Amino acid sequence: MAAFDLVWVQNLSVFTGYALLGGALWRVAGTERWKAAWHRLRGDRTGMAALALICVFLLVGTLESFSVPQPTGSRTLLQLATAGIPQEKGYSAPLATTTLSVANPTPLAGRHLLGTDALGRDTLVQTLRATRSALWIGGLTSIIYIPLGVLLGILAAFYRGWVDDVVQYFYSTVAAVPEILMLVSILMVLGKGLGTMAIALGITGWVGMARLIRGETLRQVERPYVAAARAMGQSDWKILMRHLLPNVMHLVLIKAVLGFSGLVLAEAVLSYLGVGSPVGTASWGAMIDASRSELSREPFVWWNISTSAGALFLLVLALNLFGDSLRRAFDPKHG
């Protein structure tokens, strides 16, 4: 019963995250600026192609995130969809009919588009499963660093004085420490896991967001609409939430998309270094790390590292292209 409850708690957390994201975007999408930006974005073929590719990764990650209780234990929707793909006895090349063995090749139980790994698992399936780790790290970390960075940045610029001094001192101190050293130190203390990795990346990732929002808010507070709101007797909270925050939300979205690609890379690097995802968790970084010894193997095994690195490259490229398209859509004069 406990396992059953845990499965549905995980499913509920995924659904809640998507619901909150969709609700936030739906709320701001009705403004004229966002409508105009969406109209320009739809005319950007590169941006729309990148968005379509991101949606494919999101779909795959969702299928691997949702678990369904089974008599033998819970299995994800992706595992159920690929249950018919057999596990072999060892390596096999893409579309091969026998195992990769010079001395004694044996017939395969099935055909594998991108071959199998040392344990006989389908490389394509493992690469698709690893999408979950990348997306969960990006999503969980964004939930941590975006609110923190936006809140500190907008408060520092609005109140200035000692509040601004404290925030600047705080993020200057964090930025002075090499990021990789801080990440490894936090993970060594908290232990391996997707949750602890998200906390570590969130602690180090809010600095850029705070600097960006502080700079834009400093420009916005000089606008006439802020002076008019103060003259009408509106409270600081209403000015912050109803006027300033909506006018910096486009920067938050662009920074979040571009930052997501950096988080995906960070997860791969940390897993490659052995301090990221726990053993047994599908991860592109772990796959690349495990493929190092395969490069000097005879016969040569190239498909495992090529597939995992290729998937990582495609997702990061799509996120960066879409982020650039968003920037052009919101600010066409500087596109």
What's a concise summary of this model?
Helix content is 71%, strand content 1%. The chain has a two-stranded antiparallel ribbon with strand order 1-2.
Kindly describe this structure.
It is a single chain. The longest helix has 38 residues, at 236-273. The N and C termini lie far apart (55 Å). With 335 residues, the chain is mostly helical. β1 and β2 form a beta hairpin. The chain is 71% helix and 1% strand. The chain has one domain: Orthogonal Bundle (MetI-like fold). It has 12 helices and 2 strands. α5 (123-159) runs antiparallel to α6 (161-176) and α10 packs antiparallel against α12 (303-330). A two-stranded antiparallel ribbon has the order 1-2.
Number of domains: 1
Radius of gyration: 23 Å
Portion in strands: under 5%
Query: What fold name stands as the CATH topology?
Result: MetI-like fold
Uncertain stretches: 1-6
Structural class: mainly alpha
The number of strands is: 2
Oligomer: single chain
| CATH class membership | Mainly Alpha
User: What characteristic shape results from the CA principal axes?
Assistant: elongated
Number of helices: 12
Series of secondary-structure elements, N-terminal to C-terminal:
HHHEEHHHHHHHHH
Largest sheet: 2 strands, antiparallel
Termini, distance in Å? 55 Å
The helix content is: over 70%
Annotated CATH architecture = Orthogonal Bundle
Strand order, main sheet: write it out.
1-2
The pLDDT mean sits at 83
CATH homologous superfamily placement: MetI-like
